[in-house]
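Q: What structure does this chain adopt?
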Amino acid sequence: MTISPRALAELVRRVAGKKKARDITVLDISKISIIADFFVICSGSSSVNVQAIAGEIVDRVREEFGGLTPRVEGYREGRWVLLDYGDVVIHVFQEEERRFYNLERLWGDAPVVAVSASL
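A:
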């Protein structure tokens, strides 16, 4: 099964929103980096919320895309969970970590995909 990075990023955005993620940002890094096509960045209100967001993303992607499983970092601590699907990398932060690492500034040359725009 060929999986469109755009479709994956859109699913992740929807799932994160349903789990009460805040400030969901999708960056299109495809033209400025070879590491991925999209970064999805969002925040949770606590370690439990961050873990719930990340867990729901993993479950729903697995269901929708036939068992696709990411590399996962940081789940146990729940402060910054990274889900790496290759072409799409998801960062689920607690607010303090998100402000500290400020990936949106670090990847400031990447266009932000508008919420209302269809990926």
